[in-house]
Structure formats: C-alpha cells, structure tokens
UniProtKB/TrEMBL annotation:
It catalyses: L-glutamate + NH4(+) + ATP = L-glutamine + ADP + phosphate + H(+). It comes from the Eukaryota. It is found in: Plastid, Chloroplast. SMART domains: Gln-synt_C (SM01230). It comes from Parasponia andersonii. PANTHER family: GLUTAMINE SYNTHETASE, GLUTAMINE SYNTHETASE, CHLOROPLASTIC_MITOCHONDRIAL. Pfam families: Gln-synt_C, Gln-synt_N. The gene is PanGS2. Keywords: ATP-binding, Chloroplast, Ligase, Nucleotide-binding, Plastid, Transit peptide. This is Glutamine synthetase. Belongs to the glutamine synthetase family. The keyword Transit peptide applies. Homooctamer. GO terms for molecular function: ATP binding; glutamine synthetase activity. Signal peptide: none annotated.
Length: 432
C-alpha cells in the first residue's frame, strides 16, 4: 500500500492479496481513498485525513511525496530560488519562489524582485511595490539539488531602504574600517518555544495545566522531560545542509523550550545566518504541525523566559591583553544600556526581571561566570586574560542585524565623554 499524503494520523483501510473480492489493477484503474470514520463506522470526508493509493502487481503509483523529493537536476538547468525577507512586524519571515535559469554561486547573480508591501505592513496600498535585493545564499534543505534559499533586504523602487530594513544600517557599520580591522566574532544562542496548535500551550504540557517544576528538563532525556527533540534534530541537520554555521543545540530549562547556537560568525554574516535558521525552523514546525514562538516570556510565572544571548569578541579581545579591552567595552556598554535595551526585542521587560537567570532591565551589571548579570565574562576568559563577553540582555525575538551591529558600534566606534567614562568606571568597580 503506497501512502500519498499524511498530514495527520487516522485509521487505515488495508486490502490484502488474499481477499477474494480483490481484483488486479492497472495504472489506469487505480483510485485513492480519502475518509474519516465516525462513531457509527460510516466514512466521510475530513480536513484531517490520510490518502492511500493501492499498489498493484503491474505498477506502483507515484506519491505526492515522490514529487516533492523529485530531483530535477538531470533534466533541466533551472533551479528554484526561495526569496526570504523580514515582514512589517520585524520578526515575521516571508518568502516566495521563482525559477532561475541556471545554478548560481553569489547573490549578485540573482535578479532583484518585487512584492506587495501593503500585504506585509511595509507600504501603503496606493504605492505598494517593495524591491527585494538578494544578499546571502544558502542551500535549500527542503527542495535539495541546486535549489537555494535567498536572504534579502527590502528597498523602495527609488533604492532607499524601507524602515524595517535593519540589514542596510548594519552593513554600513560592519563595512567601517575600524570594525573590519577588528574582525568581530559573534556566537548567538537562539532560544525558542514549541506550542501545541490551536491551544497555544507549550508542547508536552497538559492542556490548561502545568508540568512539574523546572529542574529535570534542561538538557534532559526521556518522554517525561524532552518534548520536541525530533524538531530540534531535524532543524540541526537542515541547517548544516544549508550551510548555516550552527554549532550546537540543547533542551532548555522550561519544558517545550529549545536552544540552538550559531557561530562563530563574522560581521553581517551572523544576522544572515540567524534569519536563515529561523526561516528553516518555521518551515519545519509548519510541517510538524507545531507552532513556533519567539516570545521572550511565553508563560508567566515561575518559568524561564526565552533569550538570544549574544557572545561577542574582537581581534583585540582575543589577543594578549584582551581582558582590559573587554572591560573597556563593558564600560561603554554600561553607558549605553538604555539604547541597547530599547533595541533588544519586544516584550523583553517581561523577561528581564532579575529572576530566572536574568538581570533587571533597569540596572546594568557585569560579572565573571554570573548568569544573573547583564554581561557575563567566562572563567576561562578571566584566567587567560583574553577571550569574549556574553551579552545576556537580548530577547529571543531580537533582530540579529540590530544587536550585532549595535555591539560593534558601541564598543568600537562610539566614544564616551571623559567625565561619563570616569563616573561609569567608578560605578562598575563598586558593582563587581
């Protein structure tokens, strides 16, 4: 029996070769069966269904799955490019497909394309055309072959970046010679929560109720501790296939919550890789029938929120004497705390409460190996006198273009006044 389509689990009808009523079927005589069984045993159509086709002795019916997995490479030079961009909310990913006449290796080989910005909250209806500029290419793990995912940013027809295009400003900062010379590295820890469809309650939780308290779930294993591992693993492999610099994954403190890490990535690449990984995660959860949320505090109460901790270093930080450079960077970050907080994600005030491994949103702090601080420095960095810092303030729904470029700007390009620098140094010295 060849399964054609299986969006949900329903009961199956089996036809055996031994049945006296069964007759041989040719490829012209096959039929598919779509049904759902009600309490009385009658069959009726349903939105939740499985479709089955009968396999005969003479031929096998091609399945929808076969077409989805079809390798078109031997038959055409054409490829499918999935153009991906960020919508009007600043967190929603949108995409559409087009045929390209041959495989490409660089975004410059791809044409610009337009979309209806009035349908994404990015343009008025009377002047709705927005132009996509291809910026980064990844292999498409869903279509395979030479097909690609294309990260784009958005411009007006006159060539001006639209207000939600955060990549444009980030690219300017990362192209500054001072920043280029320092080779900024980023390691981004993307946390996310999986929700049951319809009820919007975390995966694995009893509907309308709560599981046992936090403790056994972080990096846990077992049916009563780990919910959604298949999604995490599928995403991990899909990112590796795509060429995303994913470096690891783990179950998080709150059940139904997961994390993956991307990096080390240099400059603008960090934002491109995070957005591509988010798009892939959206597609995988779509296929699994599970809802993805990047809300920084999806469940109120005594539960961990979801962050996007951003590890950052420069060439000077990674070399001998780097610890002093790190402390100077922390001083600068303390002076621009409010600017960073305002750009670090919507709803972050619900997460940064000073509890659940966070610092208070109102107070800047730093410490060695302290996960309750705004900025954490690792024990190895302190011991070796060089390394990196971890900014623990960004929310899970932060824009990586904004966060990475702001870190580079504040620590490499922005110069505080001598007076404010001296006052901040005194305050931080008392805080440590």
């Amino acid at each position: 029996m060849a399964q054609i389509l299986a969006p949900s689990t329903q009961w199956q009808m089996r036809i055996t070769k031994a049945s006296a009523d069964a007759s041989p079927m040719t490829s012209k005589m096959w039929s598919s069966v779509v049904f759902k069984r009600n309490k009385k045993g009658a069959m009726k159509s349903s939105a939740k269904f499985k479709v089955f086709a009968i396999k005969s002795e003479n031929s096998t019916i091609n399945r929808l799955e076969d077409l989805l997995n079809l390798d078109i490479t031997p038959y055409t030079n054409n490829i499918i490019a999935e153009y991906i961009w960020i919508g009007g909310s600043g967190i929603d990913v949108r995409s559409k497909s087009r045929t390209i006449s041959k495989p490409v290796e660089h975004p410059s080989e791809l044409p610009k394309w337009n979309y209806d910005g009035s349908s994404t909250g990015q343009a008025p209806g009377e002047d709705s055309e927005v132009i996509l500029y291809p910026q980064a290419i990844f292999k498409d793990p869903f279509r395979g072959g030479n097909n690609i995912l294309v990260i784009c940013d958005a411009y007006t027809p006159a060539g001006e970046p639209i207000p939600t295009n955060k990549r444009h400003r980030a690219a300017k900062i990362f192209s500054n010679k001072k920043v280029v010379d320092e080779i900024p590295w980023y390691g981004i820890e993307q946390e996310y929560t999986l929700l049951q469809p319809n009820v919007k309650w975390p995966l694995g939780w009893p509907v309308g109720a709560y599981p046992g308290p936090q403790g056994p779930y972080y990096c846990g294993a077992g049916a009563d501790k780990s919910f959604g591992r298949d999604i995490s693993d599928a995403h991990y492999k899909a990112c590796l296939y795509a060429g995303i610099n994913i470096s690891g994954t783990n179950g998080e403190v709150m059940p139904g919550q997961w994390e993956y890490q991307v990096g080390p990535s240099v400059g603008i690449e960090a934002g491109d890789h995070i957005w591509a990984s988010r798009y892939i995660l959206e597609r995988i959860t779509e296929q699994a029938g599970v809802v993805l949320t990047l809300d920084p505090k999806p469940i109120e109460g005594d539960w961990n929120g979801a962050g996007c901790h951003t590890n950052f270093s420069t060439k000077s930080m990674r070399e001998e004497g780097g610890y002093e450079v790190i402390k100077k960077a922390i001083l600068n970050l303390s002076l621009r705390h409010n600017e960073h907080i305002s750009a670090y994600g919507e709803g972050n005030e619900r997460r940064l409460t000073g509890k659940h491994e966070t610092a208070s949103i109102d107070t800047f702090s730093w410490g060695v190996a302290n996960r309750g601080c705004s900025i954490r420095v690792g024990r190895d960095t302190e011991k070796q006198g060089k390394g990196y810092l971890e900014d623990r303030r960004p929310a899970s729904n932060m824009d990586p273009y904004v966060v990475t470029s702001l870190l580079a700007e504040t620590t490499l390009l922005w110069e505080p006044s001598l007076e404010s620098e001296a006052l901040a140094a005194q305050k931080l010295a008392l805080n440590v």
